[in-house]
Specification:
TIM Barrel, alpha/beta, 348 residues, six-stranded antiparallel beta sheet, single chain, 17 strands, 2 domains
């Protein structure tokens, strides 16, 4: 993971906010943040107060940035624990101003600007009036300005236009000198585009070893390998159905191995019938029939060396998670964050 972080730093030429929301993309929030503390990360980016609390309660001292808006009942804790909030409305700003004043603090905040994502942040046209109001809030230090790229891995021209709009927004809001941090680039953004006036990048997926853009994967190292074991091996006769719905029926005697993983662990059910495979004994084996809640079945006909108890790679260094996601008709982000709590995380 640290080598991937170094690749992000080299690609961006900027300070880094490592995005660790959604349980560090399924990798384990506490373990990841403790491991990456001291690795030159300026912020850990989280989705909400609950994630921020878990990081702090684990003893991690790196600054925490709340990527999304807060609601009124959370803001007092944000001020008390001095987490960095991104503001999307004047009402939110006034609430933080009052709470910070009551606590005798000056709270560092960033402005979120909507340059095309449509999810949050100030709309560009309202910024002149917004800045005038924010200038009257003496207990808020507007430290940064940020936005988000929704299509950096899909729409190059739109993304270039969005970066240009962000530069225009900087000028509207007082120029580069006004903001200690200017941030826009996610993993795809920092790999595929010039950073321009940005001096803080927000890598997420690439830190976990997966490039969202083709051509950059060789720069990264796989972080997560998902494994299980063969729990049962049987030979089924011709004409025998395998799994629910009889999506697959044997045409000849078939040696079938059952593997202890299913959609209850986060392995996608939608990969059923789409050519999914696993890695076992140094080679690939096809999945038969539908993925069930707790188990999958694979064809090990002719593989006499496969035995009960053998370790099976579901995805990892030998079988890319991106391939699993593509065959399941989804994205890597969903695969990683969908791995359920019953899957034991082992760290080395």
């Amino acid at each position: 993971m640290k080598s991937n972080l170094a690749a992000a730093r080299e690609a961006s030429g900027a300070e880094l906010m490592m995005v660790v929301k959604a349980n560090a993309y399924g990798h384990g929030l506490k373990h990841v943040t403790k491991a990456m503390e001291g690795a030159g990360v300026s912020f850990f980016g989280v989705a909400n107060v609950g994630e921020a609390r878990r990081i702090r309660d684990a003893g991690v001292e790196t600054r925490i940035y709340l990527l999304g808006p807060t609601w009124a009942g959370e803001r007092e804790e944000v001020v008390a624990r001095e987490w960095t909030a991104c503001l999307s409305s004047v009402e939110e700003a006034w609430e933080f101003e009052k709470l910070a004043a009551a606590a005798g603090k000056v709270l560092k905040v960033h402005l979120a600007v909507d340059t095309g994502m449509g999810r949050g942040g100030f709309v560009i046209e309202e910024l002149p009036g917004v800045m005038e109001k924010l200038d009257g809030m003496g207990h808020l230090e507007i430290e940064g300005l940020g936005s988000h790229l929704p299509s950096a891995d899909e729409d190059v021209e739109f993304t270039k236009g969005q970066i240009a709009r962000f530069h225009e927004v900087l000028e509207v809001c007082g120029g580069v000198e006004r903001f200690r941090y200017r941030h826009l680039l996610n993993s795809a953004g920092l790999l595929g585009y010039d950073r321009g006036l940005c001096n803080l990048a927000r890598p997420g997926l690439m830190v976990y070893g997966v490039s969202p853009l083709a051509g950059f994967q060789e720069k990264l190292r796989t972080v997560m390998t998902m494994k299980s074991r063969v729990t049962l091996i049987r030979t089924l006769p011709a004409g025998h159905g395998v799994s629910y719905g009889r999506l697959f029926v044997t045409e000849k005697p078939t040696r079938v191995a059952t593997v202890g993983v299913g959609y209850g662990d986060g392995y996608p059910r939608h990969i059923s019938g789409q050519g999914g495979e696993v890695w076992l004994k140094g080679r690939r084996f096809p999945i038969l029939g539908r993925v069930t809640m707790d188990q999958i079945m694979i064809d090990v006909t002719g593989a006499a060396d496969v035995a009960e108890g053998d370790e099976v790679e579901i995805f990892g260094a030998n079988l890319p998670v991106g391939e699993v996601a593509e065959k399941a008709g989804t994205i890597v982000w969903e695969i990683y964050t969908g791995i359920t709590p019953r899957v034991v995380r082992c760290y080395c």
